[in-house]
Every structure is written in C-alpha cells, then in structure tokens.
Amino acid sequence: MTQDALATVVYTSTATQPFDSSALSDLLRQSRANNSAADLTGMLLYRGGRFIQVLEGPSTVIDGLMATIGRDSRHADMRVLLREPIAERSFGDWTMGYEPIGVPAGDAPEGFRDTFDDLESGDESTVARAVRELTVWFRVRRQGVPETPPS
Amino acid sequence: MTAMSRSGTGVTWARVEDGFHVGSRRGEFLGYIDRQSDGTFLAFDSFSRMVGRFRGLTAAMSAVSEATPPETPLELRQTR
C-alpha cells in the first residue's frame, strides 16, 4: 500500500478585514474541525493584520487544502514561503495551534535578525530557519497547554 | 556586534518577539532565551533544558552558545 508522503507548507496572507478574537475563534474552530478530519496539523499566527500558517499532513491533502484556502475571501495576497517534504510533524499535538503574538515595540537587539523579516526573505535556507524559530517559540509558549478540541 | 567567545562564533541570533530569541549555528538549533517579567533572561539549550538565569542578554547568549560548543575542526584534532 502506498502512503501519501508527509509534507509541510508555510504561507502568509493579509486579512481583508480586521480579525477580532471572535473572528479568530470562529476561524480556529472551523480549521480544527476540518484538519482533524483530514489528518492535518499546524499552527496559525495573526500579527499586524497578517496571517502566517503552517500546515502539515499528507502531501496531496495539503495541496487540495491550499487551493481551498486560496479562495477564502477573508484574506488576500497569499504567498507560499516554504513547501517541503518532512519526516515527522512539528505540530503533531495541534490540529491548528494558535498563540497570540504582537508586533515588537522597537528594533531587534544589535546584530540580531528578525524572524518575521526573514520569513519573507525569499531565501530557502533563511525561511527554513525562520520557520524553525517560530516553531520553537510556539512550542515554548504552548507547553503544557492543551488545544481546545474541535466542536 | 561585540566580540564573541569561540563558542559564539558563527551563531545566528533572531528575535521572534520582544524578549524571545533563538540561536542557530550553521543551520543547527542551539537554544533560546526568554526574558522574564523581572527583566532577567532565562537561557535554554537545544533540548529546552535551562542552562541559567542572567541579568544581561549577552551572558545568556554566551550560555546558550557554550551549552553546545562547535565541533573542533579536524586540523586541530590532529594536532592534539
């Protein structure tokens, strides 16, 4: 039996209207229910009016979902930052993890890079490193906090 | 950037959000630093084991870098 290989995709987009906590809750509830049924896991961030989403799962399922996500009128200017095969999931405990993250108040410390700038650098290795940094941050912030089951 | 110890050589530091920084060396995850509400910095290695609490960011960075020293270059191993 051939199994669909695991893949991950990271994309960014711009919200077409501001998302308050209620709208985010609705989005997450829908996303978690859909992902649970499709063997997908991942993380969603909403920062400064922009979405950054990581999806993991069977490669063909991800491709199909990306087409659907692209048609969602709640966002625009969708751009895929990274798509690659993976050996194991980074967000296996989350059908769609979420953690609030704000825009920094000032510049990064001298000599430091900025993860969100690097995400959109267009350089594959830089983007991959930035995704790993986000993953570390998310796992630290969510440590011990279970995801709300899909309703 | 200020001069670094040998263990800090080649380390890329990135800010994810205010007070949270991740270190990498040549594509490998080294660890992270998390600023606490009292202004101190907790440093963690690549296995999320705490390696110390520091008053300054630079000391925390050094602790993370030194928790996973870079491999000794082959030419130096041969001279030992």
Radius of gyration of chain A: 15 Å
Number of strands of chain A: 6
Low-confidence stretches of chain B: 1-5, 74-80
What is the residue-mean pLDDT of chain B, rounded to a whole number?
84
Percentage of residues in strands of chain B = 35-45%
Structural class of chain B: alpha+beta
In whole angstroms, the N-to-C terminal distance of chain A is: 33 Å
In DSSP terms (H or I, runs of 4 or more residues), the helix count of chain B works out at: 2
Give the low-pLDDT segments of chain A. Answer: none
Overall number of strands of chain B:
5
| Major sheet strand order of chain B | 1-2-3-4-5
Proportion of helical residues of chain B: 10-25%
Taking strands numbered 1, 2, ... along the chain, how are they ordered across the largest sheet of chain A? 4-1-3-2-5
Q: Greatest contact pair?
A: A-B, 23 and 19 residues
**What's the mean pLDDT score of chain A?**
92
Overall structural class of chain A, as computed from helix and strand content, comes to alpha+beta
Number of helices of chain A: 4
Model description:
The complex is a heterodimer of chains A (151) and B (80). A 5-stranded mixed beta sheet of chain A has the order 4-1-3-2-5, with helices on both faces. Chain A has 151 residues and is of the alpha+beta class. The model of chain A has no long low-confidence stretch (mean pLDDT 92). Helices cover 35% and strands 27% of the residues of chain A. Chain A starts with 5 loop residues before the first strand and ends in a 10-residue tail after the last helix. Chain A is globular. In chain A, a hairpin with a 2-residue loop joins strand 2 (41-47) and strand 3 (50-58). Chain A has helices at 21-38, 59-70, 115-119, 124-141, and strands at 6-15, 41-47, 50-58, 75-85, 97-98, 113-114. Chain B has 80 residues and is an alpha+beta fold. Chain B contains 2 helices and 5 strands. Chain B has helices spanning 57-67, 74-79, and strands at residues 11-17, 20-25, 28-35, 41-45, 50-54. Chain B has a 5-stranded antiparallel beta sheet with strand order 1-2-3-4-5, with helices on one face. In chain B, a hairpin with a 5-residue loop joins strand 3 (28-35) and strand 4. The longest helix of chain B is centred in the C-terminal third of the chain and has 11 residues, at 57-67. The model of chain B is unreliable at 1-5 and 74-80 (pLDDT under 50). Classes of the chains: A alpha+beta (151), B alpha+beta (80). At the A-B interface, strand 6 and helix 4 of A face strand 1, strand 2 and strand 3 of B.
